Amino acid sequence: MEKTNKGIVGEIGERRGAFVAMFLGMFLLTVLFLKSVDAVPEPLHPLVTSEPAITNNTAVVAGVATSTPEAPVRIVIKNIGLDVSIKNPGSTDLKVLDDALLTGAVRYPSSALLGSEGTVLLFGHSSYLPIVHNQAYKAFDGIQNLKPGEFVSVYSAGMEYRYSVVQVKVANATQDSIELKTTGKHLTLVTCDSFASKSNRFIVTADFVGAYAVAGQ
């Protein structure tokens, strides 16, 4: 009886070994077949959670390059508490420009648009009188206090275009022109009493950092 039981156990063991060998053989054959028809699943990669890379001064937002020129509508500089709307007049007539300055900052018509090559040129009044009824006269108050590396945000209808301050200087009263770069993407802020005046003024230059979609737009 003991021999019979051992014979049965041995037979079961042989069958189990044969089954495992057959299973492994079928598995290897299946894998080889899938590889031959390029049907093996690709390994999973970790999700990328970092911000989009900025290449050649163009930030990619949601997979779309911000290359379409846009008119600026608002400027915000948190370091000095500045938040001002921007007008975009279609004429370089001095009366038209000076009237626009009475409502906030003004983009000079022939300067670059946001997202395009060149320099976006923005003018704004500054006044340090204790009482000013029209707050547009204080639109660019404090820009002379900006430091290199601080950020300036200029907004279109749905995007934020961010710039980093490079230089702050005082323009001579006899200086008629402001140098504007035509290659790369830049921003220049200028305080003035009037487009027709030659008074001393502060000039801030900044370089483009990136463009970002505005939440809720």
Task: Please explain how this structure is put together.
Helix content is 20%, strand content 30%. It is α+β, with helices and mostly antiparallel strands. The protein has two domains: 49 residues; 157 residues, Sortase (Sortase, Chain: A, Beta Barrel). The strands form two sheets. It has an eight-stranded mixed barrel. A hairpin with a 2-residue loop joins strand 2 and strand 3. The N and C termini lie far apart (86 Å). 24% of the residues are buried.
Ends apart, CA distance between termini: 86 Å
Number of helices: 2
CATH homologous superfamily annotation of the largest domain? Sortase
The helix/strand order is HEEEEEHEEEEEE
Q: Uncertain runs with pLDDT below 50, 5 residues or more? A: 42-65
SS-derived structural category: alpha+beta
Domains, number: 2
Task: Report a brief summary of the structure.
This protein is of the alpha+beta class and 217 residues long.
What topology does this entry show?
Blueprint: H1 2-36, E1 54-55, E2 58-61, E3 64-65, E4 74-77, E5 82-87, H2 94-101, E6 105-107, E7 118-124, E8 151-155, E9 159-171, E10 185-191, E11 201-213
Parallel strand pairs: 5-6, 7-10
Antiparallel strand pairs: 1-2, 2-3, 4-5, 4-8, 6-7, 8-9, 9-11, 10-11
What descriptors fit this protein?
Sortase, Chain: A; 30% strand; elongated; eight-stranded mixed beta barrel; alpha+beta; single chain; 20% helix; three-stranded antiparallel beta sheet; 217 residues
